[in-house]
Design brief:
By secondary structure, the chain is mainly alpha-helical. The chain has 18 helices and three strands. The structure holds coenzyme A (COA).
Length: 439
């Protein structure tokens, strides 16, 4: 056997074994039809199979017309409330909504003023890491991937929890609320450590605020001078609300529920969700969009490029000759929505507001032209229109908020962890069986 040069070498022997496993992996496609196999848990029309029920949220993409189900604009409901209405209400009243929506998702009702105040106090109380956790865990061997860093930190919290394996409801709820409060700190401190040790930037570890919303706290601990404008904090709050929950069928929530159904601890469960969300077809798409748009900008020669150059770039992406060769135009397509993703609609409007305030209209206009042209090209090539999804504008919004790219997907975790834990608890109460398909 040849000697390894480095930890990540793929030796010729491994390449040979990979070929062997490729041959071993081939399954006759006819067998899928013979046994009526739901590949990727989808039916023949690619619609997801129903594997559970939930009261937490509802994702609607069709409506009944003359007794027939037809595609329509997407709608997302959190416990019966349309998410766009919730966001509009918070924005109009100039107040933060993340904490209120967390309460709604977990407890199936909007809190009274007093209940909300108590709940916010509890979330702030849990904004505290075990003694020396930052020094002993986060600063050690920082990974270049912030999702892995976050998962590692969460797994390590297990060792600091005397009741880590207690899956009784009060204990799990306590752990869930702690994780919701800690995710931003674990993500941002992990990023600061990497940025310091790998990129030579100054190290900032700001203590969390002892008051204020989740969004304000994130900007406070992230920014070197801890400053932010009220609009920036409110836009971040909206982004977080839009990412909190998306039914039981999205990959990371499903993963989370599958893992939780074994009776394992919440730290392992949430880390499973993180592993799933990291994927470029799921939450990791927000970083991919930003990188893809850099490639498109370079390819087209800048923001003033005419439509034909943008069209050419989209074609190149789809043919696998531009960007990551996957053929995917990131930020488009969705497993449920076919006409529009309501979250993308809200985010586009938010981007408009911040872009006007911060003089980024040239960039936003380019994104919007790309969006229109990409949809036209995808319809030509795929024969069906693909909607703009939540990830197309979220990275743009984060960019304007000066959030480092490495933190885009961890920020998604900071929101979606609420949905994960809500489903985790719901499943414990209503099902309790170990999940396993027959395969
Ligand atoms: N770019 C190019 N082609 C796409 C596409 C995209 N963004 N999204 C879907 N397609 C293609 C599929 O490959 C498929 O082609 P095929 O019929 O030749 O195999 C066809 O369009 C239909 O796909 P569909 O069944 O509607 O999508 P899906 O449910 O399999 O996948 C996603 C859904 C989200 C995984 C997929 O749209 C995707 O990978 N998008 C890009 C990544 C992204 O933005 N993810 C964030 C999701 S919120």
């Amino acid at each position: 056997m040849e000697e390894h040069n480095s930890y990540s070498d793929v030796t010729p022997e491994i390449v040979r074994l990979a070929e062997l496993s490729k041959e071993a992996g081939v399954i006759d496609t006819e067998l899928y039809t013979k046994y009526d196999v739901k590949r990727g848990l989808r039916d023949l029309n690619r619609k997801g199979v129903l594997a559970g029920l939930t009261n937490i949220s509802d994702v609607r993409a069709t409506k009944m017309v003359d007794g027939k189900s037809v595609p329509c604009d997407g709608h997302l409901f959190y416990r019966g409330y349309e998410v766009n209405d919730l966001v509009e209400g918070f924005h109009k009243d100039h107040r933060f909504g993340f904490e209120e929506v967390t309460y709604l998702l977990l407890f199936n009702k909007l809190p009274t003023r007093e209940e909300l105040a108590e709940f916010e106090k509890l979330l702030i109380y849990y904004r505290s890491l075990p003694t020396s956790f930052v020094r002993d865990i986060i600063m050690k061997a920082p990974s270049k991937d912030m999702m892995n860093t976050l998962a590692r930190s969460i797994l390590t919290l297990y060792s600091y929890d005397d009741r880590a394996d207690d899956v009784s409801l009060p204990n799990v709820l306590r752990q869930c609320l702690q994780l919701i409060s800690l995710c931003p700190m674990l993500s941002i401190y992990g990023y600061q450590a990497y940025s310091h040790y790998h990129d030579g930037n100054s190290l900032f570890i700001h203590q969390p605020m002892t008051e204020g919303s989740m969004a304000e706290n994130i900007l406070h601990i992230l920014r070197p001078d801890s400053s932010y404008t009220p609009l920036e904090a409110r836009i971040l709050d909206i982004c977080m609300i839009l990412h909190m929950e998306h039914g039981g069928g999205n990959n990371s929530t499903f993963t989370n529920v599958v893992i939780a159904s074994t009776g394992t601890d919440i730290y392992s469960t949430v880390c499973g969700g993180i592993g799933s969300l990291k994927g470029p077809r799921h939450g990791g798409a927000n970083i991919k969009v930003a990188e893809m748009m850099d490639a498109v900008l370079e390819e087209t020669g800048g923001y003033e490029a005419d439509d034909s150059r943008i069209r050419q770039a989209v074609r190149k992406i789809m043919s696998g000759s531009l960007y990551d060769r996957s053929g995917l135009v990131y930020g488009f397509g969705h497993a449920v929505y076919t006409v529009s993703d309501p979250r993308a609609e809200v985010l586009r409007a938010c981007c408009m507001e911040v872009a006007k305030e911060q003089d980024h209209m040239k960039e936003l206009d380019y994104y919007m032209r790309f969006e229109r042209i990409a949809k036209e090209v995808m319809e030509e090539v795929k024969g069906k229109a693909l909607p703009t999804n939540v990830d197309f504008y979220s990275g743009f919004a984060y960019g304007m908020l000066r959030i480092p790219r490495d933190l885009y997907t961890p920020l998604f975790v900071c929101s979606r962890v609420v949905g994960w834990v809500a489903h985790n608890i719901e499943n414990k109460l209503y099902d309790g069986r170990i999940m396993r398909p027959a395969t």
